[in-house]
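Field guide to reading this record: the first block holds the primary sequence, the second block holds the structure written as discrete tokens, and the final block holds curator observations. Each block starts with its own label. This record concerns Sporulation integral membrane protein YlbJ, catalogued under organism Alkalicoccobacillus porphyridii.

BLOCK 1 — SEQUENCE
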Amino acid sequence: MSLLKTWLLAAASSLLAVSLILFPKEALEASLNGMAMWWNVVFPALLPFFILSELLIGFGVVAFIGTFLEPFMRPVFRVPGAGGFVWAMGLASGNPAGAKLAARLRQEGTVSRIEGERLAAFTNSSNPLFIFGAIAVGFFHNEALGLLLACAHYGGNIAVGLIMRFYGRKEEMEIRDKRNTRIRFSFAEAVSRMHDERMRDERPIGKQLGDAVQSSVRTLLMVGGFIILFSVLNEMLSLIGFTAFIATFISILFSIFQLSSELSIPLLSGLFEITSGAKLSSSSDASLIDKIIVTSFFVAFGGLSIQAQVASILSETDLRFKPFFIGRLAHGLLSALLAWILWEPLYQNRTAIHTSNGGSNYPAEWFSTFWSYWLEIAPYVTLATLLLVIWLTSRALLRSS
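BLOCK 2 — STRUCTURE
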């Protein structure tokens, strides 16, 4: 089995190398598209949250919040109160923030192995900026779809969290840690834990800030590499006919669920890289509801690009990747189901009200303006941050030499 895996990996990498030689122009265009997505959206959107989360952990604020949220997170999701912080930051900042913070809490000893795997499985999601901006406005040119996509996405996320509470219960009972069974609240204890966490980190504030920036940028550079790699891989598979071949089997599956076969290729592309899939889905000739169902699935699943990012992050701990993958698959299925259920109340009915009111603006229409403004300033945020990290690294090297 090990030898077969070696041959498969060697064949796949060789095929990719040959494809790059045969289609250099297409590979460059795909690489630039992935780079543009990372430079304009992913990096500036995730950077503030990554830096803030590092500082909040170092200052002990996460321990303080964890004590507050313990009575809620423990009985509902079977994770410590600090998991509430991971969930909130993952929702606000997007993939792969939830996995990064879950891994960080595991390294700090705040969560057990099972709890960390539960957290990683349900705290990863796309952020509102991506759903409302990139998907609804950027690709579908319909800001009214943002609410439907968001409710299906985050509703599915909550459902995955409730399902994952049953994961690992037998293993958890065998290694139960009594210090994690407390669910009472104490303000004095919360303050004490925050102070203890801050005192344990002996770095000065300036050092903590610099380390937070450099750590966040290193993670985001890794994320950017995966986005570019899978953008190129997706394009190469399409050019050599692999995507069309697999799409024929997906079309058969779609016929069972009465979905348009036009969406088989967008789904397959979305399973590799969600922005490529969303772009193809929005431009297909399928009905809008079919597009939204399929898009909801692969956006929640995350694509193999995000799966690879998370696998790289989790490899630094003892957290296993399998629970995360199962959670993403469940999230995709639940989000697609919720998109179908919520289609009429959250989109069709709102559209009818919009039309009867003479075309009054949706509350979410302001996002179109915000998205345009964001795309103008985001590249400068990325460039400024990278220059800052280069300066900090250079200064550290000069001091050490």
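BLOCK 3 — OBSERVATIONS
The chain has one domain: 21-355+362-400.
The mean pLDDT is 82.
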